[in-house]
Amino acid sequence: MPFTVTGRFDDGATYAVQITGRADRPVIGSHRAAALVELHQGRPIPLSPTGPVREVRGDDEATALAVLRKYTNVLEEGRGAPREARATG
Fold it and tell me: Which of 7, 50, 51, 54 could form a disulfide with 74 if both were Cys (CB 3.0 to 4.6 A apart)?
């Protein structure tokens, strides 16, 4: 299910994208955010600080979001976004 993500790159530029779950266009709305996800396709990425680790794929919404979380400052995630696991203790 597609959902929206709003965030900011390290240089202060902001983005608002839709993560689609489509292999051909996993991220729509920002060429820069889309290129970032495309750059990491096929590489392992943790879905949260405590894992699990999965390979980034365009049709995997959770891994596309994980790339944005790791390399940008995600400010807001829309309804339907996968939840990030948190360690308690």
Answer: 7
